[in-house]
Design a protein that fits this description.
Residues 63-83 are annotated as: Disordered. By secondary structure, the chain is mostly helical. It has helices at 3-12, 19-33, 40-74, 79-104, 110-113, 122-134, 137-140, 142-147. It is built from 8 helices and no strands.
């Protein structure tokens, strides 16, 4: 991955969100901007929003399950694990709130959400998609599957 380009995109995209959320917003803005050129981008946008929402839900469920498993096996709370689970839950809720706001936005209001039409071009959008895909659990565990 071209970390320099990702850093450049993050600098161009202003916002207090986390890195993943900023990249998601930049990609959604790019898709919104080009829906007049290619109508299939509307479906791509909906797919990404649904997939990200599902991923966030799965991440939350895994955090809760791992916390319950640790509690039942050890019998005591580890402050670090609880804090990590709390951070995951907080991050997941902020991402869900962001995605819900995107879902509730009518297509006619997309132009008001755009930050800067020159922020992301086609190559940057492709890079963002590859970067976000690399953050998915399957992509992260692909080497494990190959070695097995």
């Amino acid at each position: 991955m071209d970390q320099g380009s990702i850093a450049r995109i993050l600098k161009q995209v202003s916002g207090g969100e986390d890195e993943i959320q900023q990249l998601q917003k930049a990609l959604l803005d790019y898709l919104d901007e080009n829906t007049e050129i290619d109508a299939s981008l509307v479906f791509s946008r909906k797919f990404y929003v649904a997939q990200w929402f599902r991923d966030t839900t799965m991440e939350t469920e895994k955090a809760i399950k791992s916390q319950k498993d640790e509690d039942s096996s050890e019998g005591t709370h580890h402050a670090k694990d609880v804090e990590t689970t709390g951070q995951i839950m907080h991050r997941a809720e902020s991402r869900k709130t962001f995605l819900r706001s995107i879902i509730k936005t009518a297509p006619s209001q997309f132009s008001t959400l755009k930050m800067n039409s020159d922020t992301v071009d086609y190559e940057d959008a492709c890079l963002i998609v590859r970067y976000l895909a690399s953050m998915r659990p399957f992509a992260q565990s692909f080497d494990i599957y190959l070695t097995q």
